[in-house]
Automatic annotation (TrEMBL):
The basal body constitutes a major portion of the flagellar organelle and consists of four rings (L,P,S, and M) mounted on a central rod. Belongs to the FlgH family. The lineage of its organism: Bacteria, Pseudomonadati, Pseudomonadota, Betaproteobacteria, Burkholderiales. This is Flagellar L-ring protein. It holds the Pfam family FlgH. It comes from Pandoraea morbifera. The gene is flgH. It comes from the Bacteria.
């Protein structure tokens, strides 16, 4: 009757250590499955207007200049921090690129030994030396891109520059089922480009930064797996 084998204390500790190491390695690889995305729009996307100035004591006049935050003879266009306006996004960009390269290199050389000592001549059998080489490289590349982005987003005036231009920024989030889509926008708007409907096209916004991203299982399904990215990075082809 044979006795069943038992693990020694140090063997059990080694197995426990290997199990913990494997779990840590799997956790690290799972963390590599997420690819962080660099944000395009940085900084806050909303702000609150400053508090109104303290009104002076009434002097019996019907008109009080500080009663409203809007001048009496000016329109309702945004001009102060905290005001809002609508950006009509209508971006359409197209680009194409073609490149080609072709290089050829060839070389040859010969060596003839006419007078050699007898021993060396016998070894070489009175023969010369010829060498030649050739190198050729052909490469072609082409790229085409066509992007269309349309929509609307209402932004907030974050700052009023010294020349009167408005620094605006805004964010819109839409949650659909298990995913969330959000749009961020920032840029510099000239007051004269704002229409009477309090809108301005995105093509007339300076330093425009538009960001459209999503979160959820649909967005994760479009992301390459960590193992595939690993082999793609180390592949020499």
């Amino acid at each position: 009757m044979s006795a069943s084998p038992t693990l020694k204390p140090h063997s059990a500790g080694l197995a426990r250590f290997l199990a913990l190491a494997a779990a840590a390695a799997l956790s690290g690889l799972a963390g590599c499955a997420y690819v962080p995305q660099e944000p395009v729009v940085t900084g806050p996307t909303t702000t609150r207007p400053p508090p109104p100035p303290v009104a002076a004591d009434p002097e019996g006049s019907i008109y009080r200049p500080l009663y409203s935050n809007r001048p009496l003879f000016e329109d309702r266009r945004p001009r102060n921090v905290g005001d809002i306006l609508t950006i009509v996004i209508n971006e359409n960009t197209a680009a194409s690129k073609n490149s080609a390269a072709n290089t050829t290199r060839a070389g040859s050389g010969s060596l003839t030994l006419n007078q050699t000592p007898g021993v060396i001549g016998g070894v070489l059998n009175n023969q010369g030396l010829d060498a030649s080489g050739a190198n050729k490289f052909d490469a072609k590349g082409a790229a085409n891109a066509n992007n269309v982005f349309s929509g609307q987003i209402t932004v907030t005036v974050m700052d009023v520059l010294s020349n009167g231009n408005l620094a605006v920024a805004g964010e819109k989030q839409i949650a659909i089922n298990q995913g969330t889509e959000y749009i961020k926008f920032s840029g510099i708007v000239a007051p004269q480009t704002i229409s009477g409907a309090n809108t301005v096209p995105s093509t007339q916004v300076a330093d425009a930064r538009i960001e459209y991203r999503g979160k959820g299982y649909i967005n994760e399904a479009e992301t390459m797996g960590w193992l595939q990215r690993f082999f793609l990075n180390i592949s020499p082809f």
